[in-house]
Amino acid sequence: MSAVVEQAREAVVRVRGMRNQFGTQVVHENLDLDLHRGEILGVVGGSGSGKSVLMRSIIGLNRAAAGSVQLFGEDVGPMSQAQRQRLDRRCGVLFQYGALFSSLSVAENIQVPMRELGGLSVPMMQRLAALKLALAGLPAGAGEKFPSQLSGGMIKRAALARALALDAELLFLDEPTAGLDPIGAAAFDQLILTLRDSLGLTVFLITHDLDTLHTICDRVAVLSQKRVLVADTLDNVARHPDRWIQDYFHGPRGRAAQLTASTQAGVVTP
Amino acid sequence: MNTHAHEADMAATTPGSFQGPDAQGRVQLSGDWTLAHATRLERALAALSAREAGVQRIDAQALGKVDTAGASLLLQLAGGAGLEQFDALAPRHARLLAAVAQADAEPLPAPVREGVGDFIAGIGAAVLAIWRDALRLVSFLGLLLATLPRVLVSPQRWRVAPWVVQIHQTGLNAVPIIALLTFLVGAVVAFLGATILREFGATLYTVDLIAFSFLREFGVLLTAIMVAGRSGSAFTAQLGSMKSREEIDAIRTLGMDPVQVLVVPRALALLVSLPLLTVLAMLSGILGGAVVCALALDISPMMYFSRIHDTLEVRHFWVGMSKAPLFALMIALIGCLEGFKVAGSAESVGKHTTSSVVQSIFVVILIDALAAVFFMEMGW
Q: Which of A35, A125, B59, B190 is at 20 to 30 A from B70, Cα to Cα?
């Protein structure tokens, strides 16, 4: 039955039989993953399980040793540079440390992809940059600041604004809430959820944050033993018998996050 | 196959547009209001507002795709009334418009235009910056000179490994390039000397010219300039990226002194390697001259070296060598100080590296000129 549902939904990202290897160290072996349109997929796994490598392989920063990656239904393997760039414009990436260009102000950072696209007037770009800043929850005054003047949370928001500059349909987030205080992290989670609902984004989210998994992820993919061990709703994943998964979701932190999530749900329902 | 899909994709995008407003102020939307069509739509909207036509209702029945850029333009079309004005707005569009309307982007502050006053203020600021830089350099020199004896007297504070590594990098690794460079300059000086001195029948004096200039000036000067470019810049880049990654703060919090840990080994390394490289440069330059003399001027190597031996006093060597430690100290000092000045960005590292090389070469040539006057007055 679930197979029928799966087929009905469009896979924005489809990874089949991916193999990644650095020297003799095999990171991924025969890895399959689907990301459906409009969903937020949380990707978890222990340190060194290759979460970032998987993301880099999908967005084309890393070439997989074997296997295929389809983005928006097109196989990226045999693509020309120009075709690849056209797809890249539909993807936005938020790197773990923001990767804002340190010599440009925040507003200029957001305008970089717009300038690259060409054909937009300067007032239009200014206006869009201001809009993205506001969507990412930053005040307009943050636009003229430089990345070195921003706090950790503001860097993440600014980087998110840049990732959204060209109205990406598919958003890759590498540990978006790492290094944020719990309040900031919760606010960022809500921001992602709001943007997904209003802009119709599809989100690939690498995280260690159990609260993030509980509050915003539609499905959770667990990377373990060099492949995606299970990708399902959080409840189903948490029931998986694998030792690591059990430790992860039912350790002290996992239980605390679960408790918070259920209390929050309880508050919202009435 | 994919290309066809792409073309079909492009064909499927119908440019967004609007008709109206008609007599009742009704506007018909159509097509895709996306970034690709944003500039054209923006112009159309500007033209519309210039006509001051009142927009009452907006019919979104035939509206295609919308992204944030399009949503922002649609809200501009709607004016103050916002979402209320739209008829037949699809739910997904309504959500997007609501989000964009809620974001309620304040315009970015306009960039400040510079006037004549700012230009003059800029000159003043630049002069002050030079003065402050000079002060900082002098105080950093003082700091290093105060730290050095403290380190030297207590052997447990000697950082032998980093010191040797730095000597390797700044000295040994520079041997090929400095030997080659000075060899070539030696050859060039020989040609120059020969061309001019031949007219006076004094070709043999070419030997004096080469030996004299390399021992007193060229050997140490060329070496210092090369070292400033190679190692001074490396010091700045190393310390600069450490600074921007808070590594220098970490050194402080661990109870260590960054000057002791980072600057002293580098300064001591240059104090060893620059004089050694200078000797190499002198030899190599004289050798370059010897080759040209042998091949082009019929002065045999035997004659060349015995001429040097007979006419040249050893004090010329010491005049040249005496400048080497001074240059080494200044290059290390400027390189490290500029590294400590780096703040935050990658651009800052680049700026200070450039500044480090320019400053050290400037200071080296300045000291050399002053020294030349001094030695001349002293008759050395």
A: A35
Decide if A130 contacts B110 (C-beta within 8 A).
Answer: no
Q: Is the pLDDT of residue A80 over 50?
A: yes
What is the C-alpha separation between A47 and A176, in angstroms, rounded?
16
Distance from CA of B336 to the nearest CA of A (A): 22
B106/A140 CB distance under 8 A? yes
pLDDT 10s digits, B61-74: 778 888 888 888 88
The CATH superfamily label for domain B8-103 reads: STAS domain (3.30.750.24)
Nearest to B172 by CA among B227, B221, B225: B227
Q: What is the pTM of this model?
A: 0.69
In percent, the amount of chain A with pLDDT more than 70 equals 94
Question: DSSP letter string over B113-175?
Answer: PP-HHHHHHHHHHHHHHHHHHHHHHHHHHHHHHHHHHHHHH-GGG--HHHHHHHHHHHTGGGH
Task: Express as a percent the part of chain B with pLDDT over 90.
Answer: 47
Q: Which pLDDT value is given to residue B8?
A: 38
CA dist B261 and B251 (Å) reads 8
Q: CB–CB of B107 and A140 under 8 A?
A: yes
Contact A231, A11 (CB under 8 A): no
Q: Are B147 and B260 in contact (CB under 8 A)?
A: yes
B333 to chain A, closest Cα gap in Å:
26
Q: Which two tokens mark B187?
A: 């050859």
